[in-house]
Design goal:
The protein is an alpha/beta fold. It contains 10 helices and 8 strands. Strand 2, helix 5 and strand 3 form a beta-alpha-beta unit.
């Protein structure tokens, strides 16, 4: 991705100091009203979904059972074409429908409700941003998501329910048109990013605050998005570990304020950092209410869907059982019919035999 360059003089800092309070004050003073949020897997760990790179608990550290040539192969398009089973075994564990959005996810929606969110660029494929009720136009899923799936051969879109059922049973779905492999529309290594990712670069020209949450900033071109805002725009990192730091004046974060006085790092759990920011903004109760109400609604919705699915499976099971019973009855009826036919033929033969014997016993009138 091209770096943003400017011949203009660097504008004076909008921040008083390198604190979360300073970022909050910027928003409260309405000096930040076009916020871009960049998010990574770290915002979903509180939901129960492991991230990719954390030692010991990350997905890449726990893929040995799939006997991969290297951990990233599970998201490599060439490996998937040859051996899709490991991906679908993993997909069963992380597929949407059992994980609830975190407070960080709901904070992004709250920014939108406040009229402050310009866009949320996310690396995540788990669709948790969507589940908060955030307007989908505000979400750029840079690496695609599980929301849709299509054939890798003919590109026909697959039926979501069919894919979900296959994933549920760790089966590999196939295209009904050409029998090609079905793959969720996730960007694998070796594939191009979605068009929407590139179509919304102009957002960075408008942004007046960048918030980066829960990402190691190690995957390009997503990582270089932090350099796409104007030189004076404040940037906040909320993450467990330092990420994206650089000694360069033109790229990466400058947390030591050697070149520009605009970068702030809050190193802690994502939800902890976001709750702190919400409290400083006076949004703590509003965020908690949105989080509680939103997830209660999802729980009720999924409970109903599970019950409907159970009833459907029971009905299908009963239907199959009835068909089997019907087939058994038909088979018995056919067998009985054949037996009756045989008996009828045997009876007819016996009658004919008796008639012949009777004829043979009768004396001839011509005999003396």
């Amino acid at each position: 991705m091209p770096k943003k360059t400017s011949n203009k003089k660097t504008a004076p800092s909008l921040l008083k100091d390198q604190s979360l309070e300073s970022i909050a004050q910027l928003i409260k003073d309405k000096r930040a009203s076009k916020v871009i949020v960049l998010t990574g897997a770290g915002i979903s760990t509180k939901a129960g979904i492991p991230d990719f790179r954390t030692k010991g608990t990350g997905l890449y550290d726990n893929l040995q059972k799939f006997k991969l040539p290297y951990p990233e192969a599970i998201f490599d398009i060439e490996f998937f074409e040859e051996k899709p089973e490991p991906f679908y075994a993993l997909a069963k564990e992380i597929y949407p429908g059992k994980y609830y959005p975190t407070k960080t996810h709901y904070f992004i929606r709250l920014l939108h409700e406040k009229g402050l969110l310009l866009r949320n660029f996310t690396q995540n494929i788990d669709t948790l941003e969507r589940l908060t009720g955030l307007d989908q136009d505000k979400i750029i899923e840079a690496h695609g998501s599980f929301a849709t799936a299509s054939c890798i051969e003919c590109h026909k879109e697959a039926v979501e329910e069919d894919v979900r059922e296959c994933v549920k049973h760790a089966k590999v779905p196939r295209c009904e048109k050409c029998d090609g492999l079905i793959k969720p529309d996730i960007t694998f290594f070796g594939e191009s990013l979605p068009n929407r990712f590139f179509e919304n670069f102009d957002d960075f020209d408008e942004a007046d605050l960048l918030i980066v949450i829960g990402t190691s900033l190690k995957v390009q071109p997503f990582a270089s998005l932090i350099d796409s805002v104007a030189d004076h725009v404040p940037r906040l990192l909320i993450n467990k570990e330092m990420a994206g730091a650089s000694n360069s004046a033109s790229s990466g974060f400058d947390f030591k304020w050697r070149h520009k006085r605009r970068d702030v790092a809050y190193l802690d759990d994502c939800d902890t950092g976001i709750e702190k920011l919400a409290e400083l903004l006076g949004w703590k109760d509003e965020l908690h209410a949105m989080f509680t109400k939103g997830n209660e609604k999802l729980k009720a919705q999924w409970t109903v869907e599970d019950l409907l699915q159970e009833n459907k499976e029971e009905e299908e099971g009963e239907s199959v059982k009835k068909e089997e019973e019907d087939e058994e009855i038909i088979a018995l009826a056919e067998d009985l019919e054949k037996r009756l036919e045989v008996n009828k033929e045997e009876s007819s033969d016996q009658k004919e035999g008796k008639g012949k014997r009777k004829e043979e016993k009768q004396p001839s009138k011509n005999n003396p």
